[in-house]
Amino acid sequence: MKWIKLSDKQPQCYQRVLCYRPDKFTVIGKATLGSNGCTFQGEDGYQLLEVTHWMPLPDKPQQ
User: How many Å apart are CA 50 and CA 27, to the nearest integer?
Assistant: First the structure.
């Protein structure tokens, strides 16, 4: 998988993805559609700021 630049493509609304923020931790976030376009919400419910790239989560392991 490769990082996708947010300005090139946005994830589907409510899709859980890896979020990359320069100079911060890479975290799992949920994409939401706000009045200014795509925004991300962290697992703790807080908005993730300065997301520049995202990546789909990998598939679950097969047993």
Answer: 12
- pTM of the full predicted structure? 0.86
Q: Can you spell out the DSSP letters for 6-38?
A: TTT--PPTT-EEEEE-TTS--EEEEEEEETTEE
Residue 58's nearest CA partner among 26, 17, 24, 9 is: 17
Per the CB < 8 A criterion, the answer to whether 20 and 52 are in contact is yes
Domains defined along the chain, listed by start? 4-54 (2.30.30)
What is the pLDDT, as a whole number, of residue 33? 84
